[in-house]
Amino acid sequence: MQANVVVVGSLNMDLVTRAERLPQAGETLAGEWFGTVPGGKGANQAVAAARLGAAVAMIGCVGEDAYGAQLRQALLDEGIDCQGVDTAAGVSSGVALIVVDASSQNAIVIVAGGNGHLLPASVQRLDRLLQAADVIICQLEVPQATVAHTLARGRALGKTVILNPAPATGPLPADWFANIDYLIPNESEASALTGLPVASLQEAQAAASRLLVLGVGKVIVTLGAQGALFADGQGFAHFPATRVQPLDTTAAGDTFVGGFAAALAAGRSEREAIAFGQQAAAISVTRAGAQPSIPYLSELQGSTP
Ligand code: RIB
């Protein structure tokens, strides 16, 4: 299999509980359920792209523990090429502690584990995967140097390069922007990257404009129930969200990114790809968990990426 989408990013085991509300500092709450669910932004995006029609390869790193084997197997079960998923000796796999409240919002604490051992040299060793790809996707749950290398190499190879800047804690290095075709932050990430408030569509436009000035190709700000804002320097387009009753928003953004990438790799226009990613994300929020919530192509209207 030759992968047309390559994801360079994290794999986490999500330790998930549901509670009436999120705990406050110093508070102990009773959870209603507990489960271990395969997740991690990179792996979720790889699964989404694979379920939605792309041939996918994953470049990542797990720890030497039972979670690592389970995370790798979850990707193999989706037909994802895992030759690029290393195992780091003497560390745990990445773990995310997640609480989901009654209104479907979540709070997450991440332990990087093996993800922190995904170094630029690992990606260099797998350059043949990047060479064969059409679309390359990165997020921010692996070391910055690895993301920087992947973005620059993707640009040098003339590939379509997507950065989902999640989780974002502040501005991105200035030399990254010119290597990014599509920057896809949510509201809080767009705010962290620009220092601007991003709650409304107008504020999202201002943040997107700032990011375009910094040199990124195009920006898609995902706005949850408010849909998505696309900006390309020529103008803006708003894509309203499909109305659904959300159960758990974990991995909704990942489903959007993976679906968007799969549709681009299949030759769809970027506007069609945005609508496709949104359709997939709308289904994912009606289901619990990260990877279990991601829909298959046959569940989407039209069923072609
Ligand atoms: O985007 C959702 C993901 O964020 C979860 O699966 C969790 O692992 C964290 O990385």
Describe the secondary-structure layout.
Elements: E1 5-8, E2 12-18, E3 33-39, H1 41-51, E4 56-63, H2 66-76, E5 81-88, E6 94-100, E7 106-111, H3 120-125, H4 127-132, E8 135-138, H5 144-156, E9 160-163, E10 182-183, H6 187-194, H7 201-213, E11 218-222, E12 228-231, E13 236-239, H8 252-265, H9 270-284
Parallel strand pairs: 1-4, 1-8, 2-6, 4-5, 8-9, 9-10, 10-11
Antiparallel strand pairs: 2-3, 6-7, 11-12, 12-13
This protein binds alpha-D-ribofuranose.
Alpha-D-ribofuranose (RIB) binds at residues 10, 12, 14, 39-41, 44, 96, 108, 110, 141, 250-251, 253-254, 290.
Brief summary:
Residues 3-295 form the Carbohydrate kinase PfkB domain. With 305 residues, the protein is of the alpha/beta class. Helix content is 32%, strand content 23%.
What sort of overall outline do the alpha carbons produce when their principal axes are compared?
globular
CATH evolutionary superfamily:
Ribokinase
Low confidence ranges: none
**Mean pLDDT across all amino acids:** 96
> What class, by secondary structure content?
alpha/beta
Walk me through the structure:
- With 305 residues, this protein is of the alpha/beta class.
- The chain has one domain: Ribokinase (UDP-N-acetylmuramoyl-L-alanine:D-glutamate ligase).
- The chain is 32% helix and 23% strand.
- The strands form two sheets. A nine-stranded mixed beta sheet has the order 5-4-1-8-9-10-11-12-13, with helices on both faces. It has a four-stranded mixed beta sheet with strand order 3-2-6-7.
- Helix 5 links the parallel strand 8 and strand 9.
- Helix 1 (41-51) packs across helix 8 (252-265), helix 6 (187-194) crosses helix 7 and helix 8 (252-265) packs antiparallel against helix 9 (270-284).
- The longest helix is centred in the C-terminal third of the chain and has 15 residues, at 270-284.
- The mean pLDDT is 96.
